[in-house]
Specification:
Layout lengths: L2 H26 L8 H21 L5 H22 L6 H30 L1
Helix pairs in contact: 1-2, 1-3, 2-3, 2-4, 3-4
Length: 121
């Protein structure tokens, strides 16, 4: 894949991650999306679906799209926190949590790649 062709999935993954966080946050009216059960019932499964579909569509090194999805959420939540309260006290714990959330997304992205290779090979 060329650098030019990687631009779309890279930008899409970051935007999808941030949009998932913000949409969930707006629906539940909370500061942090994951503070509400709706994130775990809707927001996070949508993130897993996005990782699967991106792995299916762009099969070369699908871990990159997971990094974009999770980074989009982490950066957006950090921007929101900085504009409201300054540097959050639990920033290191939040970053660890985002990394942990990325692991199932990684599995989903590689499952998408596997399905894509079997179905479209």
């Amino acid at each position: 894949m060329t650098a030019r062709s990687e631009l779309l999935p890279t930008a899409l993954s970051a935007l999808l991650g941030a949009a998932d966080w913000e949409l969930t946050r707006q629906l539940v009216h909370r500061r942090e999306a994951w503070d509400d059960p709706l994130y775990w019932r809707l927001g996070y499964p949508l993130l897993l679906l996005a990782a699967f579909l991106m792995g299916l569509a762009w099969r070369d090194r699908p871990w990159r799209w997971v990094v974009g999805l999770i980074a989009g959420q982490a950066i957006w939540s950090l921007i929101l926190a900085l504009t409201q309260d300054g540097v959050p006290n639990l920033l290191p714990a939040g970053l660890i949590m985002f990394a942990v959330l990325g692991l199932p997304c990684l599995l989903a992205a590689y499952a998408g790649r596997w399905v894509g290779e079997k179905a479209f090979a």
